[in-house]
């Protein structure tokens, strides 16, 4: 543990919020919405007798096509509550059969592919046409980090907001009952979208990445935060400039604006998203909130046990 649990529960670090944080995101989403959402749902055969699946394309940041899956129970007539699922670092949307949990529980699930990712445990299908040049370390964490406008996570978080809009556009989805969910990078996206979309039903935020970022680089050598450390070994003179960009994407600043009811999880032996970074966001979270603490787990967090907790919450949201 990087801090004892009693200190974690009280940990409320000062936030570094840019003066134009709200304006930056309002402008970013306004520009994205100048492009037609154009969500296209093409039903595909998967061999799954109890689940219907559509291959989805919609316009994300810059109008760029973003891929996804929409899965629903085969016999459902709708409208259905829907989980919008975001994916961990370097993962992609994979195959439809990777996402059977929520249809099995009677929900729709909309799985957003992560642009430019998909070299991890699941393949991806969405390129990143706006990948910025300039100095960077291998990976996504420093891509375009010279400015907030060019930074990779500006595009990814915007794609996440547009994924909610695409899910709501489908006739089987109850637009008033949308939950955002994810772990690690996906948890960071879910927390950001929970702050940027004011009328969501709930958020499931598991071991979130991209929170209390500067502190994370000071206490862990684990990937992906290690990408920043490697970048700074050569770009010694750019430390403050880079963190000024990252302040626009830090989950602690989104947490302070979060109004969506949220269930968090944290693992106290997690070296990837250290517990103090998770509690920094949780303790700043402005909306209704609860957290599940897994004392002896690492970045896997609560795993299937956390899913039990989420299903119990979801049962009360139907």
From TrEMBL:
<feature type="domain" description="Acetyl xylan esterase">
    <location>
        <begin position="1"/>
        <end position="310"/>
    </location>
</feature>
<feature type="active site" description="Charge relay system">
    <location>
        <position position="299"/>
    </location>
</feature>
<feature type="region of interest" description="Disordered">
    <location>
        <begin position="117"/>
        <end position="146"/>
    </location>
</feature>
<dbReference type="GO" id="GO:0047739">
    <property type="term" value="F:cephalosporin-C deacetylase activity"/>
</dbReference>
<dbReference type="InterPro" id="IPR029058">
    <property type="entry name" value="AB_hydrolase_fold"/>
</dbReference>
<feature type="active site" description="Charge relay system">
    <location>
        <position position="270"/>
    </location>
</feature>
<dbReference type="Pfam" id="PF05448">
    <property type="entry name" value="AXE1"/>
</dbReference>
<dbReference type="InterPro" id="IPR039069">
    <property type="entry name" value="CE7"/>
</dbReference>
<dbReference type="GO" id="GO:0005976">
    <property type="term" value="P:polysaccharide metabolic process"/>
</dbReference>
<keyword id="KW-0378">Hydrolase</keyword>
<protein>
    <submittedName>
        <fullName>Cephalosporin-C deacetylase</fullName>
        <ecNumber>3.1.1.41</ecNumber>
    </submittedName>
</protein>
<dbReference type="InterPro" id="IPR008391">
    <property type="entry name" value="AXE1_dom"/>
</dbReference>
<feature type="active site" description="Nucleophile">
    <location>
        <position position="184"/>
    </location>
</feature>
<feature type="binding site">
    <location>
        <position position="89"/>
    </location>
    <ligand>
        <name>substrate</name>
    </ligand>
</feature>
<feature type="compositionally biased region" description="Low complexity">
    <location>
        <begin position="127"/>
        <end position="139"/>
    </location>
</feature>
